[in-house]
Structure formats: C-alpha cells, structure tokens
Design brief:
It is built from eight helices and no strands. By secondary structure, it is mainly alpha-helical. Helix content is about 75%, strand content about 0%.
Length: about 200
C-alpha cells in the first residue's frame, strides 16, 4: 500500500489515470480482505494504538518528494514554458544558446514557485482543519474531568471509611463505585459539565 501511494503521488503528472486505477485496486482489495478475515482466516486479536506510528512520517516524507518530483516532471516534460517564450521558433532550437539557458532558468523558477505554492496550501489547510474535532475535544475534556473528580472523591471517601472503621462505626465497601457513578451522572448534565469544563455551549 505504501509503495502504491509512492508511485501514485510521485508520477501522477506523468500518468494522470494512476489514482483511478489505484482506487479500483483498493476497493477490490478491501472486499477480498474482508471476505478472507470473515470466512477464511482466524479473527485477529485487536490491539489499541495511538496512530500508524512511524508510517505517518514515511508517508509525509514521500509526499514531500512527490511534490518535488511532480514539479520537475511538469517543468521539464511539458512544452508550455518553451512555447510561451517562443523557444522552438528560433533558428537553432536545440542549441545551448542564451535562449536555452533562459528557458532552463524559467523552468527551475517554476519548480521553486510550484513547491512553495503547494507547501503553503498544505500548511494553510493543516492550520485551518483541526486534527481533533470540536465535539471530540469536548468529550475528551469531559472524560478527564470525570476521571479527576472520581479520583478525588474516591480518595476522600476512602479516607472517611478508614476513619469510620478505626472508630468502629463501619464504612461503605462500594464507596469508590458509588463515587464514580455520582460523578458520571453529574457530568452528563450539560449545565454542570459545561461550567466545569469551561466550554461555551452557546
């Protein structure tokens, strides 16, 4: 899959139909893998992960090289720059004259401008689109709030139960469970949870 991503992104300017064929291949491969995992293979053991690990850095590096490769392919294989400067209308179109080096400089300038334009666009979209959606961020804050309140209440009630047992008045064996349930029920109230989390719900 990573090799396919590299070929599609690096040489899409040379073969524009490559993404379409890659999409068709991935759809078929997805269905075949689904049938194999559901019928032929033993169910794998699920493991939690924060992301794809080092493969994210590999794919990002390949994307940078893809921008570089496509900029050179567009600049040196297309003829819009020589036609713009009427390079092929000269008497010696393939001679290393002054016009040839001027067109070469224009091509290299196009490579630099194209790269900075793509990198600026990618950076702007990365800044504009958050990595974590707003709703998910609120839920994460709520879970952290519930965990902190549960820990605080459980420690307080555990200390109270210990004092009660020492004094001989008894204590609650399910204080931790009851405390966590109370905190969870309180956090489900939008007015309480929003005020505790500092989230403006207007």
């Amino acid at each position: 899959m990573v090799i396919q991503f590299g070929f599609v992104t690096m040489f899409v300017a040379a073969f524009p139909l490559a993404p379409l064929f890659a999409l068709i291949n991935n759809i078929l491969e997805l269905r075949i893998d689904a049938i194999n995992f559901a019928v032929n293979f033993r169910r794998p053991v699920a493991e939690r992960a924060q992301g794809i690990g080092v493969w994210f850095d590999i794919l990002r590096t390949m994307s940078w090289f893809a921008v570089l490769a496509n900029s050179f392919v567009i600049a040196f294989t297309s003829e819009f720059i020589p036609r713009y400067k009427e390079y092929f209308d000269s008497v010696e179109p393939y001679d290393f004259n002054r016009q040839y080096f001027f067109v070469l400089a224009v091509r290299l300038g196009f490579v630099i401008i194209f790269q900075y334009f793509v990198f600026f666009t990618v950076g702007f979209l990365d800044w504009l689109i958050p990595d974590v959606p707003r709703k998910l961020e609120v839920k994460i804050k709520r879970e952290n709030y519930v965990a902190r309140e549960c820990l605080t209440r459980s420690e307080a009630e555990a200390s109270h139960d210990l004092d009660a047992r020492v004094s001989g008045t008894g204590g609650s064996a399910n204080s931790l469970y009851i405390s966590c349930e109370n905190v969870n029920n309180r956090s489900k109230n939008p007015s309480i949870a929003g005020s505790k989390l500092g989230v403006n719900r207007t």
